[in-house]
Write a structure and sequence with these properties.
- The structure holds two protein chains of two kinds.
- Chain A is mostly helical.
- Chain A folds into two domains: 1-39, no CATH class; 42-115, Quinohemoprotein amine dehydrogenase, gamma subunit structural domain (Quinohemoprotein amine dehydrogenase, Irregular), CATH 4.10.940.10.
- In chain A, 28% of the residues lie in helices and 0% in strands.
- The radius of gyration of chain A is 21 Å and the shape is elongated.
- Chain B has an eight-stranded antiparallel barrel with strand order 3-4-5-6-7-8-9-10.
- Chain B is of the alpha+beta class.
- Chain B has five domains: 1-34; 35-227, no CATH class; 237-348, Quinohemoprotein amine dehydrogenase alpha subunit, domain 2 (Lipocalin, Beta Barrel); 354-438, Immunoglobulins (Immunoglobulin-like); 443-568, Immunoglobulins (Immunoglobulin-like, Sandwich), CATH 2.60.40.
- Classes of the chains: A mainly alpha, B alpha+beta.
């Protein structure tokens, strides 16, 4: 039984969100012929090390990544945050940012590195 | 504190670390003097001795520092050599580098049995790693890279320890992963606290070392046997190929391997034909075989590659040949993230009738007039319906047509035929688990179940993702989603993208990219997007949903399967060793 209707778009979004959550509960209650609720999990090779992580955050999604990642990328480079995903300043790629003064503007100048 | 005290302290620290370095080498006597050092593998190659010997000193037995206590895959050695060039001042020409990798990956390589479980790493398959013993080891090693990376090496206990030192020296954050495991970097410090409370003061790195000392030893029975048995590969000849291409179905054909410039180098020509639309694919290339069994090659299609997933694209090849050189399996792959690929299985041709494949993967119970096309070689000139065997409950009604390489038969499936995978037999050839008998399709699953795609642009190539919807029958236990479910093969579906509710109102699905009608996901542009809040990138998490066109559930609704897709930023460092195939 549903007594309340969403009045505006924000309320509608809350309603959708609750409905999406509720579906998982229903699925849990009827394991028989229904598909069990699928939970996200991180594919192999992703860095989980920091939160936020490089490709995914500790929850296995992108919600916790820097917004945009270019704002944080030099900090990752300088302090060697994600050594397997972002070049590191200390040893392997000291000149990585030479062509790019501001990553949020000149991100196209950042090269991919093949160590 | 005064400057003098600081200077004294600094000197003390430097002196300590110098002392530690002196004691770190393989040949140096350990202060604790526990077990005698393990026997090394002597290096006999003159080029390796001359190029590496400047730093890696050689003892009276011919053992070179570090190198003699290590074994690795070709990719492992290539990576180490590239690091030596980058950071340690090694200079060598491409020809010399190839020779060094060849020698090390062969005489300091892995036995076929050791390499098989981690071939997915060289083959660049994205899959869940089930070989990680516990969360401490996962935290210490697989936080940053796949666990297959350490498992691509075999080392002495001492050398594994030196490897962890290298990590701490080169990658500052490794120290944190080693000490705090999965909790590193502010992800919560639960693992460390739990370890302390349970009375085991072991750090994650200690647990990782204990595991590797046990399961990735330098000396193993497998390597002892293989180093005696290894010989120059005799792969020249004709091979039957069955190939699965995600999204494009099965291909069958023949591969010819011809001897190349050296005993371990070969040239290839392959012709494959699609069972779906009959189109043919011709590719040619070359390959190198390491350690007598491990194929690394390159090949290219005869046509022009027009799209990103075009089968004529130049591809790298990684294959594992069985020690008896009668069969092989592997992957031929391409794409910036090696996301496109052909899964291949090879078998030597023989003079006998041989089945290699079938054009359909499922037969419904209680159906008649099902046309089944069998593909193979040397089929007899006369084939009667009774020569074909699909197991009980499946009757061959008639042979529609036949050639030496193809038989088309019409089969009838009894209403009470037992569901499950069936072998197909023709003369003395049996094709195991070739076709499945089913009563109804219980569910569909999207493959891969979880996937990652990378945003890209003109400067950072995109990482695509191909999806496929596979039908399943519930299996003998009557319950779906259990281990005994019967895979029935791909089904026709309509593809769509659904929001994954992680962040309220982020509308990821509007930004991450597009999914076409064939299940190929193309990610959007990388870089900040001013149209999103905080100019966030086009990254996001979404469900990729497959809705079956024909199959319905008990309530009459179409069957639906979904896969979790992370669309993320480019990988700026790509540890990849394409050189091993050149």
């Amino acid at each position: 039984m549903k007594h309340m209707q969403p009045l505006n778009r924000k309320a509608q979004r809350i309603d959708d969100y609750v409905a999406a959550r509720a579906e998982d509960v229903v699925a849990l209650q009827n394991p028989g012929n229904r598909q069990p609720p699928q939970r996200p999990h991180v594919p192999m090779g992703c860095s989980l090390m920091f939160s936020p992580g490089w490709e995914v955050d500790s929850a296995g999604g992108t919600a916790g990544l820097c917004q945009p990642v270019e704002r944080d990328i030099y900090d990752c480079w300088v302090t060697c945050y994600w050594p397997a995903q972002v070049p590191d300043h200390m040893n392997n790629s000291p000149d990585w940012t030479a062509k790019c003064a501001s990553a949020t503007k000149d991100w196209r100048n950042l090269d991919l590195v093949f160590p | 504190m005064t400057k003098a005290v600081w200077a004294a302290l600094t000197f003390f620290c430097v002196a300590l670390s110098a002392q530690a370095q002196r004691n770190g080498g393989q040949a140096a006597p350990s202060q604790e003097a526990k077990a005698p050092p393990e026997e090394g593998i002597p290096v006999t190659d003159q080029l390796v001795i001359s190029k590496c010997g400047g730093c890696h000193t050689r003892d009276a037995k011919g053992n070179m520092l570090r190198i003699s206590w290590e074994r690795a895959t070709p990719e492992g050695w290539e990576e180490a050599i590239k690091r030596m060039v980058r950071l340690n001042g090694l200079t060598l020409t491409p020809v010399q580098a190839r020779a060094v990798v060849k020698y090390l990956a062969t005489y300091h390589g892995l036995a076929p049995e050791e390499a098989k479980p981690i071939m997915y790493f060289a083959e660049h398959r994205i899959q869940d790693e089930t070989n990680i013993p516990n969360d401490a080891v996962r935290g210490a090693c697989a936080n940053c890279h796949a666990f297959a990376r350490p498992l691509s090496w075999r080392r002495s206990a001492e050398d594994w320890k030196l490897l962890t030192n290298l990590h701490v020296a080169f990658y500052a954050t490794a120290e944190q992963a080693f000490r705090r495991g999965l909790g590193a970097g502010g992800g919560g410090n639960a693992p460390m606290v739990a370890a302390r409370e349970s009375g085991t003061p072991k750090l994650p790195v200690d647990e990782a070392l204990a595991f590797l000392d046990k399961s990735a030893q330098l000396h193993t029975p497998e390597w002892a046997a293989w180093s005696a048995r290894m010989h120059a590969p005799r792969l020249a000849g004709r091979w039957l190929v069955s190939a699965h291409i995600p999204g494009k179905g099965m291909y069958y054909g023949e591969l010819t391997i011809e001897p190349g410039a050296a005993a371990d180098e070969f040239k290839t020509n392959v012709k494959l034909q699609s069972v779906k639309d009959g189109s043919s694919l011709v590719r040619s290339g070359q390959g190198v075989v390491y350690a007598g069994y491990s194929w690394r090659g390159r090949s290219k299609g005869s046509g022009n590659a027009s799209t990103v997933d075009d089968l004529n694209k130049e591809a790298r090849e990684v294959m594992w040949f069985s020690p008896d050189e009668s069969q092989a399996e592997g992957r031929w792959f391409w794409g910036q993230y090696q996301e496109f690929g052909i899964d291949v299985k090879l078998r030597r041709t023989s003079a006998d009738p041989t089945l290699i494949g079938v054009d359909r993967m499922m037969l419904k119970t209680g159906s008649q007039g099902n046309r089944v096309r069998l593909i193979g070689q040397n089929f007899p000139a006369q084939i009667a319906a009774s020569d074909l065997d699909f197991g009980s409950g499946v009757k061959v009604q008639r042979i529609v047509s036949h050639t030496p390489s193809e038989v088309v038969a019409e089969v009838e499936v009894a209403g009470d035929a037992v569901s499950g995978k069936r072998d197909i037999g023709l003369a003395r050839s049996v094709l195991p688990s070739a076709i499945a008998v089913y009563d109804r399709i219980d569910y569909i699953q999207v493959s891969p179940e979880s996937a990652i795609s990378h945003l890209g642009s003109d400067v950072h190539p995109k990482g695509y993702q191909q999806f496929e919807a596979i039908a399943y029958q519930r299996g003998a236990d009557g319950k779906p989603h259990t281990a005994d479910d019967v895979e029935l093969g791909p089904v026709d579906v309509t593809w769509s993208v659904e929001e994954f509710y992680a962040v309220f109102g982020d509308d990821d699905k509007e930004f991450v990219g597009t999914l076409n009608s064939a299940g190929l996901f193309t990610p959007a542009l990388d870089g900040p997007n001013p149209q999103r809040k905080f100019s966030r990138n086009n990254y996001g998490d979404v469900w990729v949903v497959a809705t079956a066109k024909n199959e319905k559930d008990a309530e009459g609704k179409p069957l639906v399967g979904k896969s979790y897709l992370v669309v993320s930023v480019p990988m700026y460092v790509q540890f990849d060793q394409p050189e091993v195939g050149q």
